[in-house]
């Protein structure tokens, strides 16, 4: 008699339903939608120094507070809007990160103007392909790579904030530019 086999998964989502859903449906899936890429960049910048779980559980609040991550709107935030965001308990009220998001929206718009899409610009750092890592344990997952180093350097040159190599690597993982699912995870070969 064959017993049903439990699907193996990366262990970092733990037993948190929202984290499991994010792991199973979004993390590591190659992403080419400009607005979604900007959303991931904003969320990863806010994650700096915090856990991804904290950010993920506030994601809907971030969507509302930051006008559904619409870069054209965010780039034109007034000082009054920034002060309102500083009072919003539903998000991370870090003034540098809030102001950085406004600067990043401005940088994003310039990149789109230059490259035609943010997707075309950001995926150049991996040659337009997902880097396949063959990770067998969480301890093997890197925090940066030559590609995230190059991305960070170029974004900083363009005036982006909170885009250090570690944040860029987390962004690459989220956007499917690198596959860091464990080789035994049911999502490893899913894309």
Explain briefly what this protein structure is.
With 191 residues, this protein is mainly alpha-helical. The chain contains ten helices and two strands. A two-stranded parallel ribbon has the order 1-2.
Fold and architecture overview:
The chain is mainly alpha-helical and 191 residues long. It has one domain: Hypothetical protein, domain 2 (Endonuclease III, domain 1). The protein is 51% helix and 2% strand. The chain is built from 10 helices and 2 strands, in the order ααααααααβααβ. The chain has helices spanning 17-25, 34-47, 52-57, 59-65, 71-74, 79-86, 95-115, 118-123, 146-157, 165-174; strands spanning 131-132, 178-179. Strands 1-2 form a two-stranded parallel ribbon. α2 (34-47) packs antiparallel against α7. The longest helix has 21 residues, at 95-115.
Give the key terms.
Endonuclease III, domain 1; globular; 10 helices; 51% helix; two-stranded parallel sheet; 191 residues; mainly alpha; single chain; 2 strands
Can you tell me the CATH superfamily? Hypothetical protein, domain 2
Succession of helices and strands: HHHHHHHHEHHE
Q: List the strand order in the largest sheet.
A: 1-2
Give Rg in angstroms.
17 Å
Quickly give the structural class: mainly alpha
- Determine the strand fraction and express it as a percent band: under 5%
Q: Can you tell me the CATH architecture?
A: Orthogonal Bundle
CATH topology (fold) name: Endonuclease III, domain 1
Q: Please, how many domains?
A: 1
């Amino acid at each position: 008699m064959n017993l049903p086999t439990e699907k193996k998964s990366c262990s970092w989502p733990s037993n948190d339903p929202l984290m499991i859903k994010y792991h199973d449906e979004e993390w590591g899936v190659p992403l080419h939608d400009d607005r979604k890429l900007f959303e991931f960049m904003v969320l990863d910048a806010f994650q700096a120094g915090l856990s991804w779980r904290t950010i993920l559980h506030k994601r809907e609040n971030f969507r509302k507070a930051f006008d559904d991550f619409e870069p054209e709107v965010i780039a034109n935030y007034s000082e009054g809007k920034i002060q309102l965001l500083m009072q919003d308990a539903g998000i991370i009220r870090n003034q540098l990160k809030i102001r950085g998001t406004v600067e990043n929206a401005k940088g994003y718009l310039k990149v789109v103007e230059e490259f035609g899409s943010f997707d075309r610009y950001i995926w150049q750092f991996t040659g337009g392909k997902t880097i396949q890592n063959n990770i067998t344990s969480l301890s093997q997952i890197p925090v940066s790579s030559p590609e995230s180093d190059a991305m960070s350097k170029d974004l900083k040159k363009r005036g982006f904030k909170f885009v250090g190599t570690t944040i860029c690597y987390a962004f690459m993982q989220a956007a499917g530019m690198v596959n860091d699912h464990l080789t035994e995870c049911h999502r490893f070969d899913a894309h």
